[in-house]
Amino acid sequence: MDRRVFLGSLTGGLLAAPLAxxxxxxxxxxxxxxxxxxxxxTETLRGAFLEGLRERGWNDGQTVAxxxxxxxxxxxxxxxxxxxxxxxxxxxxxxxxLKQTKTIPIVTVDLESDPVVKGFLRSLSxxxxxxxxxxxxxxDIAGKQLQMLKEAVPEARRVAVVWDERVAGLQFATTxxxxxxxxxxxxxxxxxxxxxxxxxxxxxxxxxxxxxxxLTSPIVLRAQRRIAxxxxxxxxxxxSGFSTFPAAGGLMAYGPDFPxxxxxxxxxxxxxxxxxxxxxxxxxxxxxxxxxxxxxxxKALGLTIPPSLLQRADQVIE
Length: 318
What we know:
Blueprint: H1 10-21, E1 31-35, H2 42-55, E2 65-69, H3 75-81, E3 85-87, H4 91-100, E4 106-110, E5 131-135, H5 138-152, E6 158-163, H6 169-181, E7 185-190, H7 197-205, E8 211-214, H8 218-233, E9 238-240, E10 252-256, H9 258-273, E11 289-294, H10 295-301, H11 307-312, E12 315-317
Parallel strand pairs: 1-2, 1-3, 3-4, 4-5, 6-7, 6-8, 8-9, 9-10, 11-12
Antiparallel strand pairs: 10-11
């Protein structure tokens, strides 16, 4: 799905509306509580989610009522309202939601956790509770990120890894395993709050890394622009799992296409509103990945990106 086009077909939505409305008693719209991400692409992700709903016959204000919220603290409001489904992306919000309700269905996108190990789900195929959604398959993506970094910076032997140790332990462990395969030494640069970005990068520089890998988490996302600035300042090539990272000044990103995931997430909401139980809906993986390269940053770093890597890029920022 092209991230630049999320304008739904009004005609298609209206034709599908009677089917969606039939799932609820006359005069009562099903209610969805949606806590938005705090990031530059909030509107794009919301548009992708709404498009996914419209394709399935759900139009906000016509066949479904969506309660948009921005802060984690507002999850309790959605619980009091007893919404039909809550959309709570990221592991921090999952924990907050599960503490407050075991009955309201919750759907999520979580790029950091192993949901079974964390105790969120009984299994990937049969979650068993009131939570389901989209989770990452880490080993594959960690290996590809490091391979792409080696293509761009063949001399890279030491890589600083910026990560949120409270939620990204699995990511870090799989990155360590993948790094051994390509003969890279990994240095931990743990970030616990976005305001600590300067100190974390300063600490990482003591080991003289050749490059930096930015793992995903809500905190890292909020700090990504500052991390990118510091990396360029210290001439460190970077790669991240966030597709927004190159636009924020980073060198490269390889990871799941965020709008595609939010479009995919709408499918869960549709099935639950039509009567499915979240505990019966298997976990899905992201279906689309993209490579984004910032050539302006490459120039600032004095790097020449190999043509073989540029040819594989889904987006090049010049």
